[in-house]
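Operator note (shift B, R.M.): manual run for SET domain-containing protein requested after the automated queue skipped it. Running by hand, logging everything below so the morning shift can see what happened. Input copied straight from the record, untouched. If output looks odd, do not overwrite the archive copy; leave it for review.
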Amino acid sequence: MLPVASLTHLLLVSSVLLLLFVSNLRAEPVVIDTHSARGRITVADRNYEVGEEVLAEAASLVWPANSDSSFVLKFLEGGEEEREAILQLAHLPTDAKTERIARLRAAAEEVYDSMRERMEAAGWEEEDVHRLLIIKDTNCFPFYGRRASGYEEGTSVGADRLALFPRCAKVNHSCRPNVMFSSQTEDGKLRLIAMRRIERGEEVTFSYLGEDGDVMSREERRERMRGKDFLCSCARCEGVDDVRGIRCPACGIIRYPLPETAAKEEEEAGSAGGVVEREKWTACRCEGEGGGDSVRDLVEWEEEAGRRMLQFLGKCRDFDRQLPDPRELEEMVKEAQGKLSPSHFLVAQGQELLAKVWSSYAHRMEKREDFVAPFLLSSRDCRGRAARSFFLAIRVREELEEKWEEGRECSKEETGVNSKRGGEEGGGRREGGERAVFSCTRLAFSAAENLMRSEMKEWREEAEDVTRYVKMMKRRYGEDDEDVRKIERFVNELIV
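Run finished. Output pasted below as returned.
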């Protein structure tokens, strides 16, 4: 029989080990579960607040972007456990009849031919390389592997490397996600950060389209997803198209495209002897009194405005030769604010594009003495206009977030004039200094940088907008980020 002291010691050690075991279990931030419709899902194992890290994972493979052969070599050089984890990642079968799979088959042939001796020595066939490239194309993330400055991230500097993170790759897509991902970190880990409060047991999702997906129409999101052989059926895609509202000229009600299932039911119910429209829309007060014709006219205008924006974007891609005039885009965006919803994707994307163009002109004026812009404005004026456009883009996203959080569909009674933040600029100020929206942090950072560089001191109201986002900036970029500290000091001086 053990002495009492020894028994007590044994019980104490056992208790400590049990506590360590339980704490390790509880430290697991997410768990993999199965869903009857969605298959394998990632579920939060506790509650998360906005800006809190949900998951961090080191890369299993990193390789130069646009180099399939480098990826295959890195894979072959990895450990057995690492390779097995990668091969378990989701992917389409190699015989799927899609353009993407065919493109990757051609790439696999090229890689195999260039590394034939190595492939044969490893016992690999061309089909194995094809499967591996499909896994890579389906699951890879942009990789920075360093801490980019907030302003560098805010201007969307592209990553020159790609990486695989097997655990994070198991997180599903949603067009209304609850986390964002970034590898712009000190240790190079991919971090999933909560964009809104996440409840224990809730599925963790991010958007394959990044934060830009928030202001894409349903069709644009689907077009982007086709490149990934993926058709999204999330709640947002199955609902009304929340960023394609148009304003009825007669009654001012904002109308939205109905979900495809609802549109089909309405079409079947009223198709006898009638003209079938391409899309069905939520009702307005004057429907049946010329409202349908108004919708068709506005949809035609929307399509033409979309083409004009694409043409402008094409000029931006050849900036120094084309010198796109932002005043042209400003006129189109202003017209869109009158004809369409204040949160229409043309308004949101137009304001963000305007901000980037004004910033680009300011940057060229500051760096090149011989640069001649197509307008008589100083670099500080351009910075000021960029900041203003960033703020207007933020308000569009805040409007969308407000609707999503209230759990309501876009209301058929919404006019954009009687809403809390209506107005000809596509949304006024949020009342009472309401909290910030995490997905707007990047835009707020860029707005603040341009505000500082404009050297304008009369922007007190805009400074208050930035102040709402300083806390979010610290969560996203770090408490000690010098750029964020500089912004905080600047806006505090303006407000005081």
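Quick read of the result: The chain is about 50% helix and 10% strand. Residues 1-27, 149-157, 269-277, 408-433 have pLDDT under 50 and may be disordered.
Leaving this for review. - R.M.
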